[in-house]
Write a structure and sequence with these properties.
Elements lengths: L1 E12 L2 E13 L4 E5 L6 H8 L7 E6 L2 E2 L5 H11 E5 L10 H6 L9 H14 L15 H13 L5 E5 L7 H16 L3 E5 L3 H4 L4 E6 L2 E7 L2
Parallel strand pairs: 3-8, 3-9, 6-7, 7-8
Antiparallel strand pairs: 1-2, 1-4, 4-5, 9-10
Helix pairs in contact: 4-5, 5-6
This protein binds adenosine-5'-diphosphate (2 copies).
One adenosine-5'-diphosphate (ADP) binds next to helix 1.
InterPro entries: AAA+_ATPase (IPR003593), ABC_transporter-like_ATP-bd (IPR003439), ABC_transporter-like_CS (IPR017871), ABC_transpr_LolD-like (IPR015854), MacB-like_ATP-bd (IPR017911), P-loop_NTPase (IPR027417)
Pfam family, one: ABC_tran
GO molecular function, one term: ATP binding
Length: 225
């Protein structure tokens, strides 16, 4: 599903070079639930940006769903990303003027899905995340946890092979965090592959596997009991 071999990424900051990633190897098979941990500056965002095809490594290879990401053109890359990856963010990134249902339908507008079918699928996914009765509310009329459920529904709408979630509970209280992690757990049990970045141990405990970065290298890679 995800196969990363020997990737590195260096940033230039004035006269100094910052090695954000330094020889990372990572294989994430289908239907794994992985937490990426590590202190601030350890390379988590850089790795997520590469996994999400938003950025490319300087060295090494990245295969996503069998495709060598570096060797395909921009159009193919955009299509691979739309098809394969659902993004979930700390700040939800919902459109304020659209209802929950319209937000969830949005990714389908780029895939020529007929509107009736888009509406039908978005309605189904909203009920899958427990929000059927909030379909016509705007984000401002929803709680933080409900907003993140909408964002997760939007990430699921194209039936992506992988969900990439960057600090998805960073703006939520502990009870709501628990609810969202239970939702991920539930999606994982239904076969969804999920990668979550977090700096909180408690959140990582919900995952099946925890990969810890330090100074751009994998320091530990273990399975939870
Ligand atoms: P984390 O997400 O674990 O906090 P990052 O991947 O954001 O780590 O950063 C890893 C290192 O790379 C840090 O030292 C950071 O300052 C640096 N870095 C990340 N992105 C950039 C960038 N666009 N320009 C310069 N330095 C960057
Ligand atoms: P977090 O630690 O929450 O993952 P960061 O604050 O490290 O996030 O980074 C947020 C964004 O800013 C990332 O996309 C990263 O690539 C970029 N970034 C991080 N450090 C730098 C830097 N020194 N210069 C420019 N951009 C950076």
């Amino acid at each position: 599903m995800i196969r990363v071999r020997g990737i590195s990424k260096t940033y230039q900051m004035g006269n100094t070079l910052v090695k954000a990633l330094d020889g990372v190897d990572l294989h994430i098979p289908q239907n794994e639930f992985v937490a990426i941990m590590g202190p601030s500056g350890s390379g988590k965002s850089t790795l997520m940006n590469i996994l999400g095809c938003l950025d490319q490594p300087d060295n090494g290879s990245y295969q996503l769903a069998g495709e060598e990401v570096a060797s395909i053109d921009d159009d193919q890359l955009a299509s691979l990303r739309n098809r394969s990856i659902g993004f979930v963010f700390q700040t939800f990134n919902l459109q304020a003027r659209r209802t929950a249902l319209e937000n969830v339908m949005l990714p389908l507008r780029f895939s020529n899905c007929p509107k009736v079918e888009a509406r039908e699928r978005a309605t189904q996914i909203l009920s899958k995340v427990g929000l059927a009765e909030r379909a016509h509310h705007r984000p401002s009329e929803l709680s933080g946890g409900q907003r993140q459920r909408v964002a997760i529904a939007r990430a699921l709408i194209n039936q992506p092979e992988i969900i990439l979630a960057d600090e998805p509970t960073g703006n939520l209280d502990s009870k709501t965090t628990e609810e969202i992690m239970n939702l991920f757990h539930h999606l994982h049990q239904q076969g969804q592959t999920i990668v979550v970045v977090t700096h909180e141990d408690e959140i990582a405990q919900h995952a099946q596997r925890v990969v810890t970065l330090r100074d751009g290298k994998i320091k530990e890679d273990k399975f939870n009991d």
